[in-house]
Structure formats: structure tokens, C-alpha cells
Amino acid sequence: MSATIHPFDGGASGDAGGARVLQPGLDVSHGQMLYLEDITVSFDGFRALNKLTLYIGQGELRCIIGPNGAGKTTMMDVITGKTRPDSGTAFFGQTLDLTRMTEPQIAQAGIGRKFQKPTVFEAMSVYDNLELAMKTQKSVWASLKARLSGEERDRIDATLQRIRLKNEYLRPAGLLSHGQKQWLEIGMLLMQEPLLLLLDEPVAGMTDAETDATAELFLELANKHTLMVVEHDMGFVGKIADKVTVLHEGSVLAEGSLDEVQANERVIEVYLGR
Ligand SMILES: Nc1ncnc2c1ncn2[C@@H]1O[C@H](COP(=O)(O)OP(=O)(O)O)[C@@H](O)[C@H]1O
Ligand SMILES: [Mg+2]
């Protein structure tokens, strides 16, 4: 039996994409999407990550919290190939060794990353931003075909719906609110059909209404995608969290439900004790 997975399995209504497999090779036969084991990253002798071990299951919506400097962004840098660990192992599925892949190879394998600052093309319309994101994934030959297929238009429409920008599709992205720009960038990632999405402080600077809508969006994305969300906003984390991992000084301090980690004495000490 094939152990490969399907990024858009069990498609509920309005799926961005319909059935397709980005990477027929990703082996998640053990149910885990990401394996980080004993990862150490040093900067001039300072350990930003210190034997970090963390697993993310397929379809999980994992929240990562921890004080500033805990190593959250560095962890995402390791997963995306931006930073090479000094030691330790990082695997995507059973077989893809992330420490031996380039950043483009990792993106191609199905790991999408959303940085804190939105990087949409401000002069282009919302629709054109999504179209461009879809095309950059394709072969040169496919991109040369000028017209979008019906299926491609359906994918863009479904993504517009998903990211709550259906009524804004003709607007230049530069005229969107901060929160809408964040959604557009998430939509651009979705056009590339990632299996694992890394989101670094996605609701920073959003209004309360935008934050609530983002929580709904992430809950819709989970299962079909695996999400790793770094966020300081505990109200937001409480709305979406299944399992929460607390990082501190480059290692996992605690893991569990939000209630569990918030009741953990070591966590309380780290957050309040200095
Ligand atoms: N490129 C770098 N050079 C030197 N130190 C770094 C670098 N990147 C991160 N650090 C340090 O590593 C630690 C972890 O940083 P970071 O991963 O950004 O933490 P977080 O995202 O949890 O706030 C911090 O002390 C930071 O100053
Ligand atoms: Mg950070």
C-alpha cells in the first residue's frame, strides 16, 4: 500500500485546489510529518537551539510559544534550510533529510513559510498575486501557456473564498488592510499546495476581528495541511490550539494542551519569574 499522502484529502467545500498530490514521494507512513531530533544551532558559541527535539503529526495545528529569544524563528530557519544545524537531525516525513536539501528543494517538497511581514506585490491585484504564486510553482513550459485553465481559475476562486478576499479580488494588494495582506500572503502559499505551513506571528498587528477570522481560517486549514504556528497572542492560541509546545533557551520546556502548559510551574517561572 502506498504510504504517500494527499495534501487536499477529504476535501470539504471550497477546497483550494481539488485533488492533487504535490509530492508523491513524501512518506508519512508513521503519521509524523516533521521530525526534529537533538538539533543544536550555535551563533558564536551561543546556543540558539540546544538539543531541540520536536515532532509534528500529520494534519496537526501546533502552536509554539516561548519568550523572545527562545529559538522559535531559528527553528523555522532550520526547517526551511535557511540555517544549517551544527548537529541533530531534521526529517520531513520518513525519508527527506532537510539538513541536506536547499531552500528551494524544501519549498518544492511541500514546506511553505509565512514570515512576519507580508511580502505581497502591492501594485498587483489580489487575483494577480494569487495567479503569480500558482505559476511560480510550475514548469517554464506550463507558465508559458498564456491562458488559465478552468481548473486553475477554480483554484484561485476557491483560495479567494478561503482567505476571505473574494470581494477584493480586483483591488491592488497595496490597498488592503494589514490583516488582509497577511491573508493574501497565506493564500499565495496555499496556491503552492504546501503540506506543512510554518507561520511566524501571523496575527501580530491585526485587529480583533481579523484575529478571530484568522483563527477560523487556520482551523479550516488544519487536517488538510499541517500547521506550525508561532504566536504570542494567547487569546488567539487558545482559539486554535490543539497541542502547544513551549520553547525556552533553545529546548522544549513543556508540551501539552494550553491549559496544561499554562499550569506548568516551569513555564510560569519562565514567563513571570524574571
Ligand atoms: N543570525 C544570528 N546571529 C546571532 N544570533 C542570532 C541569530 N539569529 C538568532 N540569534 C539569537 O538566537 C536566539 C534565538 O533567536 P530567535 O530564534 O529569533 O528567537 P525567537 O524567535 O524565539 O524570539 C536569540 O538570542 C537571538 O539573538
Ligand atoms: Mg521570532
Strand-helix topology:
Elements: E1 32-43, E2 46-57, E3 61-65, H1 72-79, E4 87-92, E5 96-97, H2 103-109, E6 111-114, H3 126-135, H4 140-144, H5 150-162, H6 178-191, E7 196-200, H7 208-221, E8 226-230, H8 234-240, E9 243-248, E10 251-256, H9 258-263, H10 265-272
Parallel strand pairs: 3-8, 3-9, 6-7, 7-8
Antiparallel strand pairs: 1-2, 1-4, 4-5, 9-10
The structure holds adenosine-5'-diphosphate and magnesium ion.
Average pLDDT works out at: 88
Summing up helix and strand content along with how strands pair, one would put the structural category as alpha/beta
In the CATH hierarchy, the architecture is 3-Layer(aba) Sandwich
Distance between the termini: 53 Å
Strand content: 15-25%
Order of helices and strands: EEEHEEHEHHHHEHEHEEHH
Under the CATH scheme, which class?
Alpha Beta
**Order of strands, widest sheet:** 6-7-8-3-9-10
Rg, Cα atoms, Å: 19 Å
The total domain count is 1
Shape: globular
Counted beta strands:
10
Helix content: 25-40%
User: Bound small molecules, which ones?
Assistant: adenosine-5'-diphosphate, magnesium ion
Weakly predicted, low-confidence segments: 5-23
Name the CATH superfamily assignment: P-loop containing nucleotide triphosphate hydrolases
Largest sheet: 6 strands, mixed
Here the CATH topology equals Rossmann fold
Number of helices: 10
